[in-house]
What we know:
The complex is a heterodimer.
Chain A: H1 11-14, H2 23-28, E1 31-36, E2 39-44, H3 63-77, E3 86-95, E4 105-115, E5 118-126, E6 135-143
Antiparallel strand pairs in A: 1-2, 2-4, 3-6, 4-5, 5-6
Chain B: H1 4-7, H2 9-14, E1 17-21, E2 24-30, H3 44-60, E3 70-79, E4 89-99, E5 103-111, E6 118-128
Amino acid sequence: MTMQPASQPPRQLTDANxxxxxxxxxxxxxxxxxxxxxxxxxxxxxAAAPFVGHEGxxxxxxxxxxxxxxxxxxAVVMKMDQRRSLATLDMRIDLVRKPRPxxxxxxxxxxxxxxxxxxxSRCVVHDGDATDPVASAMASFCVG
Amino acid sequence: MSGMGELGSYAEALGVQVTKxxxxxxxxxxxxxxxTGRTGFFHGGVIGSLLEMACxxxxxxxxxxxDGLPRCLNLAIDFxxxxxxxxxxxxxxxxxGRRGRRVTYMEAEAWQTDRARLVAKARVHVxxxxxx
Lengths: 144, 132
């Protein structure tokens, strides 16, 4: 298992581009804060706050779903000892409460099982205090 | 149909369009760099978000348009196949499964060129009228 020191973005992610993100995640400005064996912490910057929740809806979680998908999947990558492809099979998200306006959101993804070609992750999203979550999720993946 | 301002800035930035097809509210998202996940495919989070938006739009489209604003309590998304960039766009629509007094159970589907070939499905609980 490749161990990554905390606060270093995972090599597998930084290989993609210097910011560690591509496409939708890069557009949202998602950053890797820290990572280790089977876990990763990501941040959706405050600048993306307009994309989370909306007055017209009580709560359109919008970018929270993307943040969860990114963190839960990247946690699996952090558990791999070699680069393998990843497809999300399913994801279940509880939207616990609205984030505080204008705050950055943090997501901690943890891959708690990688057996054969199936991986399982949990993810908690919060706006500063992990014990007061904004969203809580779990996801399963097929690993190529 | 509804103005983009109503869908929110995330949907607006992604270029989501809302139309009504045979009485169904259908959301359409064009492919672009902003929607990309792994190369050549839509991002799973974008698919999930579109399914959620479809539920909220369908909820608001009820004949007895209720008071208050809807919000999703939870989403359970099943990804059935990759959403290919090549198809150019992604569609989503939702229907009410069971309407309770406070909570509505909804089912949403996403597809590309053929509605019989679904990209993803979601089960969603929507609650009305709370601000928190």
